[in-house]
Amino acid sequence: MSDDARTTETRRRLIEATMETIRTQGIAKVSARTIAAAGGVNQALVFYHFGTVDALIAHACVVSTRERVDSFRARFDAVTTFTGLVQLGRTLHEEEAALGNVTVLGQTLAGSQANPALAAATGEALGMWTEELERVLGRLLADSPFGELLEPRLLAELVSSAFIGIELVAPTRVADGYAAGAGGIPGGGGAAARTMDTAGDALARLEGLARSIDGLGPVARRALRTALRRV
Amino acid sequence: MSDDARTTETRRRLIEATMETIRTQGIAKVSARTIAAAGGVNQALVFYHFGTVDALIAHACVVSTRERVDSFRARFDAVTTFTGLVQLGRTLHEEEAALGNVTVLGQTLAGSQANPALAAATGEALGMWTEELERVLGRLLADSPFGELLEPRLLAELVSSAFIGIELVAPTRVADGYAAGAGGIPGGGGAAARTMDTAGDALARLEGLARSIDGLGPVARRALRTALRRV
DNA sequence: GTCTATATTTAGATAGAC
DNA sequence: GTCTATCTAAATATAGAC
């Protein structure tokens, strides 16, 4: 095997191992050693190929997002209704359970707080999703009663941010019953167990709403458009 | 000063220092030492009073959220329109810039991925916000054309998750122009600079939408309700 | 390009003096 | 209850052999 091919292979393994580690252990537990262990390569290679751990994370974030977005582009383009868009969102949510790119974005997002390099990478990755969404929304909104009220760009930013928030919150909704450390939480604990799959449920209901909007007859559409214009 | 009073004071300082450190440096940089430095207390006191760093973070998360939620309860109760609710959201967003409880929740949320104790605490804290929101939405939805389509609980979960997502994404929208590490990003970079304050802008526009819904006349309301029921 | 040390720093946690 | 000192584990990063 040529050195060139080995480089490519090693870099690929490191990037995949980075994704996997972030997904399963969270950004806090990611280190050159955990990544190397997950990828079955030597720890020093992280620094040889990427310079720093942060650079590897940033790189992995952008590269893997590009792959995922590319694999969704055709499906975005095929969307013609709000219902279809929400359904695509559900598909994304389900595929994410397995592949976890959005989960990774959530993690890098959190890590971006005090890390400008990571923030730039996360922003770029997020921007790829937003761009796709913006194109679709531009088409859909033009024909909807909301066309004059909502800008595609803004709504796209809003929706993608919200999507990430929802995917991030989901895990905390499984386990409940907070156990305090030394000292205890005054008045803490209690709170009935929450059993909701927020993301899945929400998207399912949202689909109902989308179906309603798509299904509005011409009379209702005109009435709504007029009402909205009055403000 | 009695030992009891000193305990209270030290614990209070540790909790505030924890919040401050998470806010300014992110959850990744939080340690017993950084917290102690921020609070001007000894590092060993973290373990004496809270046992572990995680327990302190969990405690700070829940306690400080309770304070913030309490300070907002009256304002939630005073809301009577969707417009008013969005305006309250804007107020929250602005106060957050200074106090940053939601930012902290975003950080602990990310840290919750592989940390059940933290996940439980974050879930509880988040649940406090959701509960308030659910009460308000319950009132508002009952009188709206959407009452039959949206459950207050689900919408509240959705909105609070989205809010966190938006607050988390905001920082990545300031700086742009991603600089790659060794090797560079193939085809990376570029992408026109984004200058949007997503959270602020989005809430401003959302207020317009809310105003529209609140301003719907009886005819439009009936039409909309009928249209929605048809699905 | 890859591996084995290893230097250095930082973090979690505890013991024991005050 | 608080502080100093210290042990241990883990992380970043580099040097040098292969």
How is this structure best described in words?
2 copies of one chain form a homodimer. The first copy, chain A, is mostly helical and 231 residues long. Chain A has 10 helices and no strands. Chain A folds into 2 domains: 51 residues, Arc Repressor Mutant, subunit A (Orthogonal Bundle), CATH 1.10.10.60; 157 residues, Orthogonal Bundle (Tetracycline Repressor, domain 2), CATH 1.10.357. Chain A is elongated and about 65 Å long. At the A-B interface, helix 1, helix 4, helix 6, helix 7 and helix 8 of A face helix 1, helix 4, helix 6, helix 7 and helix 8 of B. The structure holds a DNA duplex (18 and 18 nucleotides).
Give the secondary structure arrangement, pairings included.
The structure is a homodimer of 231-residue chains.
Chain A: H1 3-25, H2 32-39, H3 44-50, H4 53-77, H5 82-99, H6 101-111, H7 116-142, H8 152-169, H9 198-215, H10 218-229
Chain B binds a DNA duplex (18 and 18 nucleotides) through residues 3, 6-7, 10, 31-34, 41-49, 52-53.
Characteristic terms for this protein:
homodimer, 231 residues, mainly alpha, Arc Repressor Mutant, subunit A, Tetracycline Repressor, domain 2, 2 domains, DNA-binding
Concise summary:
2 copies of one chain form a homodimer. Chain A is mostly helical and 231 residues long. The first copy, chain A, has 2 domains: 1-51, Homeodomain-like (Arc Repressor Mutant, subunit A); 54-173 and 195-231, Tetracycline Repressor, domain 2 (Orthogonal Bundle), CATH 1.10.357.
